[in-house]
Here is the input.
Amino acid sequence: MAKKKHEKSIELLNKAVADELLAIHQYMYFHFHCDDQGYDLLANLFKNTAIQEMGHVELLSERILFLNGDVEMKIVGKVQKIQDPKEMLKCAAKMEDDSAKEYNEWANECSANADSASKKIFEDLVQQEERHFDQFDVEMENMEKYGENYLALQSIERSKTVSTRTQAAE
Ligand SMILES: [Fe+2]
Ligand SMILES: [Fe+2]
Here is the structure.
């Protein structure tokens, strides 16, 4: 194998992969349970965010291989078995906030090691994780504002879609 460049960056990029892999697992778990409970809006939000996190893994992995490292594919922790939508959003928002903070630090570290390409990747990810945080935060606010109605509306929307589908099939 060719000589590794930027050992420290490879380590940080792999730590980020581990974060992203946990996010993917966690958000898909949330997706399954929101879908099961009929909360389509939240179910889709979690699924779409998980897909975006998968894109992040790809971006990080390409850089690791370019630096002649290998992608460890470790997961940073265990999926939390949260089934209450409000708690899901709280958990997800915290994960995004933590990632953004870490990636900010790691961007600086890569910069200090004269690896501006890895720094740029972390900076771009900060922007995207901040956007994810914002999306989860907005949903939390909606839940605060509209309480149970917020979830009830999502279930009603689901029933409407199902009944239209059934009518169309008749
Ligand atoms: Fe991510
Ligand atoms: Fe994210």
